[in-house]
Structures are given as structure tokens and as C-alpha cells.
Design a protein that fits this description.
The strands form three sheets. Strands 4-3-2-1-5-6 form a six-stranded mixed β-sheet, sandwiched between helices. It has a five-stranded mixed β-sheet with strand order 9-7-11-12-13, with helices on both faces. Strands 8-10 form a two-stranded parallel sheet. Helix 5 packs antiparallel against helix 6, helix 6 packs parallel to helix 10 and helix 7 packs across helix 10. The protein has ten helices and 13 strands. The longest helix has 24 residues. The radius of gyration is 20 Å and the shape is globular. Helix 4 links the parallel strand 5 and strand 6. The protein has 302 residues and is α/β, with parallel strands linked by helices.
Length: 302
């Protein structure tokens, strides 16, 4: 049996969605599966605010160091055939270079696959890569086809009812507010939204919305990477305490939402669940909120 270690939550999500749980030997501290933790974080379970986390992450970026570490003793014990990792963010996640440095210390014959999507289409390609690497290409084809069908259904329903794109803002972090990048603009477009602050296929970065002329979104969505919904809500309250936000249509109409970051910042099959959630927010008369996402979102109430 092929022994797989997932150094990336998104890779774990892909493996589970492919029905390949039996191959997984070890995962990260973030992964929702009962397996040994081979990746650990110096920030995990620390009670830090969004501002404190941002400052620590910025410091690690400046020093080009990661907040995570590899359990090399466990790595040597498992001797995996395959490791899935990434190179998009070598601070917030273990990067490809760190993996290769660890492997070079030992006589292991491990194949390393780096998953680095920029768009939703790239995420589908990553699913194909994982399925083929594990020896189950047909499972990848089946999963990708089902995800495409869901997205197609959303687009066709919006078109049938002649719905225009909603003027929205999607923030990947609070204090400071980061715009959305990479595949999230794709999710917005499919689900019926458009964000003028977004950076499609690229990194998110801090944006000064107070300095934007004519900035007045109808809907605002906050989705913090790696932060619980409860903590995100507390951080959003801090952001919205600035009187500026009360002048916006989204605030005045009660259209500010806090959503689970895993549906947006982890590039795996669950991104399509994020599409369905957004579609429900943008056009609730056409799309019911998915029952399986209960507890994954909250509408802000002043």
C-alpha cells in the first residue's frame, strides 16, 4: 500500500474527498482526521488577536522562516512513499524547500508533490495530480466532474434568472484588512459576486478601503485563514467599531457576513462548498443555505 503524508490541509481535503483515507499516514495539526501529526505550529492554540498574528507572520516573512515544523522522527519512522506540500506560502505552511531539506538528511525514496494553485481551475488540476500520484486517476476524474457540475448549476441558475453580479468585498484577514486573491475571485464570480479590490490569481495584500474613492459595497464578507468563526467574529467587531464602516451600504443593510476560512483559503474540493455558500448569501431567494454548512457562517448583527 502506498504510504502518504499530507503536509498541507488542502491535500488532506483532496485525499479524503477522493476516498483515499486509507493511504494517509500522517497529517498537519490543522487536519480533521485521526492521524499522527507530522506538522506542528508554534502559533497553534495560542490566544492571539488578528493584529498579533499578522505581526508575527510579517516578522517570519521578513526573516524568511516558517512558523511550522516537521516531526522528522515520525517522518523517518513512516518512510512515506509520497508527500504532498506547497510553495505558495512558506511561512504559514511548510514549504517545498523545507520538505526537501528534511528528506535530504535521510536515505528515503519519497516523491514530493508541490500543489501551488493560483486559480480554481488550478485546484482541479491539483486534484488530478493527487489522484494520479496515488494510483487512482479515475477517482480524480469523477470528483472533478462532480465539482464542475455543481459550479455549472450555479452559473446556469443565475443566468436563467438574469441576475447581475453583486458588488461585494471579500476580506481574507482583519486588522489589517487583506483583500482576496488566488482562486477566491473565481469563487465570487461563479456564485454571482464581483470584488473591485480582488487580486485574481495573485496574493492577497493589505488594502486601505478608507482611501478608496466611491468604495461602497453592497455585501462584505470576512473569512480569516486559520481562525475559528467565533474568534473571527470578535475580530470583525473590532474592525467595524470604526465609524467609517457604518457609512457603507453593506453595514446599513445588514449584509456583513463572517464565514469559515477553510471553505475559501484551503484550495481543495471544499472550495465548491464555498461557492454554494456565497451563492446563498448573494441570492438567497434562489439558493438555500446548505444544511451541511450550518455553523460555518454568521450574519453580523450590530
Amino acid at each position: 500500500m502506498t504510504k502518504v503524508c499530507s503536509f498541507l490541509p488542502a491535500a488532506t481535503n483532496i485525499l479524503l474527498s477522493l476516498g483515499l483515507e486509507h493511504l494517509i499516514q500522517a497529517v498537519t495539526f490543522e487536519c480533521p482526521i485521526d492521524r499522527p501529526r507530522i506538522i506542528h505550529s508554534s502559533l497553534h492554540e495560542k490566544d492571539l488577536s488578528a493584529d498579533e498574528i499578522n505581526k508575527l507572520i510579517s516578522l517570519h516573512k521578513k526573516e524568511n522562516t516558517t512558523v511550522n515544523s516537521i516531526d522528522e522522527e515520525l517522518l523517518l519512522k513512516i518512510q512515506p512513499d509520497i508527500i504532498f506540500t506547497q510553495a505558495i506560502c512558506n511561512v504559514c505552511q511548510i514549504g517545498e524547500d523545507d520538505v526537501n531539506k528534511a528528506l535530504n538528511k535521510y536515505p528515503l525514496e519519497t516523491k514530493v508533490y508541490s500543489l501551488n494553485p493560483k486559480s480554481l481551475e488550478d485546484v482541479f488540476d491539483n486534484i488530478d495530480t493527487v489522484a494520479k500520484a496515488c494510483g487512482y486517476p479515475e477517482k480524480g476524474d469523477e470528483l472533478i466532474a462532480s465539482l464542475r457540475e455543481i459550479n455549472k448549476g450555479v452559473v446556469e441558475k443565475l443566468s436563467l434568472h438574469h441576475r447581475s453580479l453583486k458588488n461585494c468585498s471579500f476580506f481574507e484577514w482583519m486588522n489589517p484588512t487583506f483583500n482576496c486573491g488566488h482562486w477566491i475571485p473565481d469563487q465570487l464570480k461563479i456564485s454571482g459576486g464581483f470584488d473591485i479590490l480582488a487580486n485574481p490569481n495573485g496574493y492577497s495584500f493589505p488594502v486601505d478601503v478608507k482611501g478608496k474613492n466611491d468604495y461602497n459595497p453592497d455585501i462584505i464578507i470576512f473569512s480569516a485563514c486559520g481562525m475559528s468563526l467565533e474568534q473571527s467574529l470578535e475580530e470583525v467587531k473590532k474592525v467595524l467599531s470604526d465609524p467609517f464602516w457604518k457609512t457603507l451600504s453593506a453595514y446599513q443593510n445588514g449584509e456583513i457576513w463572517i464565514v469559515d476560512g477553510n471553505l475559501f483559503t484551503q484550495p481543495g474540493p471544499d472550495l465548491v462548498k464555498g461557492v454554494l455558500l456565497l451563492a446563498s448569501i448573494f441570492n438567497s431567494d434562489l439558493f438555500a443555505f446548505p444544511e451541511d454548512l450550518e455553523g460555518k457562517y454568521v450574519q453580523y448583527c450590530d
